[in-house]
Amino acid sequence: MKKIFRFILLLAAVNMIGRYSQQEVSLPTLSQAVDFAVTAVKEIREVLLPYYTI
Question: For the chain, which has fewer Cβ within 10 Å, the N-terminal or C-terminal residue?
């Protein structure tokens, strides 16, 4: 269950980075992309936390 949950979080983070980089004219640097992925995963985790126990 943990592996599936982590995989979903990873896919969501990659998807959000893709959307973010498409909206920006210049591609974000790697550090910005990593920061964005971390915040995205934290937000998704807070939303899904009541439904799944990690």
Answer: N
* Domain contains 30: yes
CA–CA separation, 48 and 40 (whole Å): 12
Q: How many domains is the chain partitioned into structurally?
A: 1
6 band by pLDDT with thresholds 50, 70 and 90? confident
- Please provide the DSSP assignment of 34-49 as one string: HHHHHHHHHHHHHHHT
pLDDT in tens, 11-52: 777 777 666 656 554 555 667 777 888 888 888 888 887 776
Single-letter amino acid, residue 50:
P
